[in-house]
Amino acid sequence: MGIEVRPLGVRCNIGCQYCYQNPQRDAGNVARRYDVPAILRVLEADPRPFSLFGGEALLVPLADLERLWAFGLERHGGNTVQTNGTLIGDEHVAAFKRYKVRVGVSIDGPDELNDARWAGTLARTRELTQKTESAIDRLLAEGLPVSLIVTLHRGNATADKLPRMHAWLADLAARGLRAARLHTLEVDDPAVGARYALDADENVAALRSFAALERRVPALKLDVFTDMKQMLRGRDARAGCVFRACDSYTTAAVSGVEGDGQRSNCGRTNKDGVDFTKADRAGYERYVALHRTPQRDGGCKDCRFFLMCKGHCPGTAIDGDWRNRSEHCEVHKRLFVDAENELRAAGELPLSLHPLRARVEAGMLAAWARGDNPTIESVVRHVVANGTGAKEHVQGDMRFSRLSWVSEAARRLWQPRIERVRRALAELPPAAVPPCCAGAGELRDPVWRWQPPVGESELSCSPLLSPLLGRLGLRVLDHAACSPSCAVSLEAAQERIEVLRARDAEAAEWLTAALTWPIRWSALHGIAEVKTPLFKLCHDSEDSLQRHAFVGAGVAWPEAAAQGNRAPFRAPPRRLMSDAPRHLRGLEHAARRRLPVLAEGTGDLQAAVAAQAPAIAWERLVAPQDDGHDTEVILRLAGARFPGREQARAQALAAAEVRVCEGRVAVRHVGERCPRAPDYEHGPLADPGLEQALALLRRWPAAARQLPQIVHMISPMAPVARPTARWPELRGSASTSQRSQFGVLWVTTYDPAATAQALVHELAHNKLFALGLDLEASGRLVTNPVDQLFVSPIRTDRKRPMSAVFHAQYSFMHVTALDLAMLAGETDPAMRVYLAGLLRRNIERMEAGQREIAAHVQTDADGAIFVAAFLDWTAQVLADGRRALAEHDRGG
Question: Which of 623, 810, 830, 875 is deepest in the core (most CB within 10 A)?
């Protein structure tokens, strides 16, 4: 792909619902100006051809486009532009001819099949789609080279829409279209995924149908199938970047040039909404890690297609974390099997089945461990010629550290400062290691000495003891303190910083400032990543199959820091793109298109959703899933059952002065009176207990990710009869939520652990509301008549309908699972005793509820699967809880 010149960055004249550049737009990082001479200076120094890109490239005035194209024609003999086609006019067509411009057009199909490329209103969207189609028609009629990029989603690639897509592409091929690239949908926003994402079966069916189309229309080449077959042949020199072991810190296939001349990476890696600069060198630790990580944990171990696929694009990685393999793994694997069978039928032996595969893999792994990324072709030649590539050549002890800045301005300002701090520290005499802190030398990453729990936890320590920036040389002590509260190490750090201040006051000031910046450290698959408002850093760390993270809110904000869409970056009050009314109108339109028109008072909305949505895997809805599958289903069903949800979310965030969960959940009072009045009244909005509760919730990562996707508003409550001054002494919580206000929770905040329980408790109730199970109802999932009453595991004062009993069990099983996670991540002895008490109490109640439901529940067909899976999960959590309590009672 070479160089992408983006004069106006991600600025665009339309608002594609699924665009991978939306995180940057959400953060407000949209360019308004550019400098053509600065761009040309970069292009003159680079021999590779370039493509004009966006956003929308044709928003640049034609005169400036011609300056760039004139350079491209003279230097490279031609040019390329990628556009949505809506702005192409007569002057552009003339310029395309004059400067030999190859035109790539992004379009998802004709007419309404292109609605996901939204333009604010349906009328405007259809108008611009017509302009794009007319532009394609004209370019083909004029004999200009045209190619397409088509993203597959529910708006254009379900079974009922594919015949029209095929006919449209075949017609364009008959008129001269020769190439199209098919993209599976990259989902960065669960609300978008719920409306547009195809499941694995649908993606495979759609892609197989296009493979059949390619065979019927040989003049049209769809690159994904060609690439897969070539990869299986071991011929990867011309393969697409997604198959070439892309490094997300340097993205070799895409070298961006921004409007000010700054070099940048492929935008698919910008999940934080920040356009990072390229790191000083490439690294391929992702691929060494994926090769050894089990598939169930996000890796590729023992996959015979790893050599060809390599975990695919880091921009589509599971959970948006580039250290995982692609979320589309199942799709790729099944298509590779198809290509494998096709080659075998033609008498070819695919590399996936070749006896040399293991040795070629070993050769690639050894090269990646060295920091090289050769082609498979070259490694095959080397293995055949020299017989090398044996597994013993793989380096198992990779050491690496790479840094990428948020901007060149940040690098110019802070890189010399950091180097000066390191030099100043190196000149100090070494500090003595206290006996309590000895013995950490065997750790790759000293952060692990503090045993970061699974999920995210707030790092509570003096900044002078923080090890999070240690790999960059920004730590006061040479040794890792034995704990965040080590008094001996803290005293030594205070003395050492004073010695540094006496020698170099500026260096001491910069170091102490850096240690108080907002920060996020995480580790996964042996790779640590540290993010601050100025840079991101990756380095080797201890192996871990799950993600562990420390976060620090910080108290200092550095000069030249970047704005992003989540911590540690400063985020706007609301997502500027994804929460805008024009974007939400598109989501509502997509939701309506997926439902049949129902006559007033007839039909069941939930059944209507089920009729057109992908089949629901009910067994995966019992607990928060690491891959977010259950969240996508719940959001899809909630969008149909509560059609004003997205608008309510946007309004709440716009009106809220306090927000949590990286700005995604509003904290504000709902209504004049608390729903649990007169016993409770509105509580303080900025109570630290809520933030502490959310930190505890991050010990269950899947639930912490799910909460801000389903819940959009938290309304704090306070008990009327208890004085504010005594709140720190109180234990327990009260909470409520209502079906009529989906996504809104009322909770007390005086006990962080109990507040965390209340959050998942009410989250679970809302999930059941979305699935169609109300508190006292019969007919969806649980079908017991409402006049049949049973013993509730929570409300033991009176019997309740089975639907209410199930609500109680489902919500408090979420609480019990959280209790288990909180206890596992707790080190404070007194807090461990409290958490163990919570877990013990809930296990007793949930065992009773498990017996009541198993003995008496009646279900429909979907409910049979759902309830059986839920009871299995209940049994597993209760067994894990009993083991945890036994260990706790033994003093563990």
Answer: 810
